Amino acid sequence: MTQREVTDQDNLTWTCVQAYAGLEGKAAEKATELSASEEGTVTVICTPSGQAQTVRLELPANWLDQTSDEELLQQIAQKR
């Protein structure tokens, strides 16, 4: 399962992973297909290291490679 970690200005480390990323094989393909929106976005769950609440983001399908840490932190801040 591929994930990314980013740390915000409050020193919270957020671990972000695409929904259904832990599945493998045909189940993973089907889950990814079902979770992708018509706009080409996928659901990403970001879990904090501290007391803050988990957030759910809608990001481009290529978020792992194409979304900067700053953009990811902005999206998290907007959802908190």
Keywords:
single chain, alpha+beta, 3 helices, 80 residues, 31% strand, 4-stranded antiparallel beta sheet
Question: What would your notes on this structure say?
Answer:
This protein is of the alpha+beta class and 80 residues long. The mean pLDDT is 82. Strands 1-2-3-4 form a 4-stranded antiparallel β-sheet. It contains 3 helices and 4 strands, in the order ββαββαα.
Quick summary of this structure?
With 80 residues, this protein is α+β, with helices and mostly antiparallel strands.
List the helices and strands and how they pair.
Layout: E1 3-7, E2 13-18, H1 25-35, E3 41-48, E4 55-60, H2 63-66, H3 69-79
Antiparallel strand pairs: 1-2, 2-3, 3-4
**How many structural domains in the coordinates?**
1
Structural class: alpha+beta
Number of strands: 4
Radius of gyration: 13 Å
- Sum up the overall morphology in one term: globular
In helices, the fraction of residues equals: 25-40%
Give the low-confidence spans.
none
Kindly report the spatial arrangement of strands forming the biggest sheet.
Answer: 1-2-3-4
Cα end-to-end separation: 25 Å
* SS element count, helices: 3
What letter string, H or E per element, gives the SSE order? EEHEEHH
Instruction: Provide mean pLDDT, rounded.
Output: 82
Q: What about the largest sheet?
A: 4 strands, antiparallel
- Beta content comes to 25-35%
